[in-house]
Amino acid sequence: MPKIFKIQLVYLCLCSFAFCFAQKDKTSTSYIDVNYFKGKIALHNPDILHLIQGRPEGIIVGWNKKTFGAKAWEQRYNYPDYGVSFSYQDLKSEALGDNYSLYAHYNFYFLKRHLMVRIGQGLAYATNPFDKEDNFRNIAFGSRLLSSTYLMLNYKKERIFDRFGIQAGLALLHYSNGSTKAPNTSTNSITLNVGLTYNLAETDPEYQHTLAANDGKFTQPIKYNLAFRGGVNEADVVGSGQLPFYIISAYADKRITRKSALQLGAEAFYSRFLKEFIAFRTASFPEDNLTGDEDYKRVGVFVGHELFINKLSVISQFGYYVYYPFDFEGRTYIRIGLKRYFGKKWFAAVTLKSHAAKAEAVEYGVGIRL
Q: What tens digit of pLDDT does each residue of 43-92 get?
């Protein structure tokens, strides 16, 4: 099937779903948007130069639920939208193939709601991942299932003609499996996009403005957190195998506003892939002067920030290894991700740990905040 027909088929299926939803819920204050994008793959790593052959293109189709301030957090964040989106991307490379992705996203608004910033996080399916016999050139995607993030910065104007509006701007699409399987150099596509919006409701309710003038003032005692993270990953050596890792973190946080908290803590890393990697380097590279007895465990300290959005929060942390017996990708690391609270104390989190632009692991964690 020609790729243009694949795009049209996806578009028709998703639009049909959206219109069926609208018929069932005539009071819904939501809208769909359909965006075409085209751009280029950024050369963030010279090893992927042979994979950059054309200008990737595709579509992003989204369903967006509007908020009007019924809850306090909606007013604090200027009435964002939230929803789900689907993307199809032709990477214009026979080795890379096509990617199909499904996301959850938020839209945040600025400049009298004409500037929209969308952040989407989800999973992607790669049609042509690395294979040591049939597709050895694709060193970007070592697995069919990938983690994907996209950012969209659009100028937006709704209801230009009846329920239809337009939007246009920039979009960045990132694909990586977080080193769960080698190889994993990943790709970043920088694109221009243009799209249409369609409101599923004839009119929107009024925005509520019920927050008190001193709503921004907020105090809370220092909280203490204990978190356990884990998962599987693989060293850069293809075929070395996926192995488990475990991380125990303890940290304190202090809310400085209703939206933000600062963090300070320490953590211990138990990464089995690193143990096997040390053994591999010892046997294969005698010039490294390794004995094979180097400890694979690491201990780090970190500072961080947490942005609270309803029961969801976004965390970003910068760490430094204070115990670092084996040199692997440098002594500093960063972590970004999402945390979801259940009640007032318990939380679950999905985060990405990396050394600069080099991902080490996708971490799945649970914890308690006391």
A: 988 899 999 999 999 999 999 999 999 999 999 999 999 999 999 999 99
Spell out the residues 6+ positions from residue 1 whose beta carbon is closer than 8 angstroms to its own.
none
Which residues are within 8 A (CB) of 258 and not within 5 positions of it... i.e. 6 or more apart?
A: 76, 215, 216, 218, 308
Question: DSSP class of residue 114?
Answer: T
Residue % of the chain over a pLDDT of 70: 92
**CA distance linking residue 184 with residue 174, whole number of Å:** 12
Residues 6+ apart with CB under 8 A from 42: 188, 189, 190
Beta-bridge partner residues of 269:
247, 298
Could you give the CA distance from residue 27 to residue 22 in angstroms, rounded to a whole number?
A: 8
Retrieve residue 257's tokens: 């506003």
Cα–Cα distance, 61 to 84 (Å, whole number): 9
Q: Are strands 30-41 and 187-199 parallel, antiparallel or unpaired?
A: antiparallel
- Name the percent of the chain in helix, strand, coil, to the closest 5: 15, 50, 35
Amino acid at 124: A
User: CA-to-CA distance for 164 and 52, rounded, in angstroms?
Assistant: 36
Reported as a single tens digit per residue, the pLDDT across 266-301 is 999 999 999 999 999 999 999 988 998 999 999 999
Quote the CA–CA distance of 51 and 129 in Å, as a whole number.
12
* 3-state SS class at 68: coil
Stated pTM of the model: 0.88
Report which residue type is found at 263: Q
Residue 211 DSSP label = -
